[in-house]
Design brief:
Blueprint (H helix, E strand, L loop, with lengths): L1 E4 L10 E4 L2 H16 L6 H8 L3 E2 L5
Antiparallel strand pairs: 1-2, 1-3
């Protein structure tokens, strides 16, 4: 299982998501960034920043 914690990108945000693959996590994070953080344009560097912060949940402890 893969894990993304928004606080690793947006300090103070406690939202997180888990999925079997990185593509699903990126999709969820992009939606979260739009709805919660008001991002209207998601640039390629934002996608890169999301991807490098996705970890194996087993290594999160």
């Amino acid at each position: 299982m893969r894990l993304f914690e928004c606080g690793s990108l947006v300090p103070g945000c406690e939202w997180h998501t888990r999925a079997d693959n990185d593509a699903e996590i990126v999709r969820r994070v992009v939606e979260h960034m739009r709805v919660t953080h008001g991002e209207t344009t998601i640039r390629e560097n934002m996608i890169d920043n999301i991807k490098v912060r996705i970890i194996d949940e087993s290594k999160a402890a």
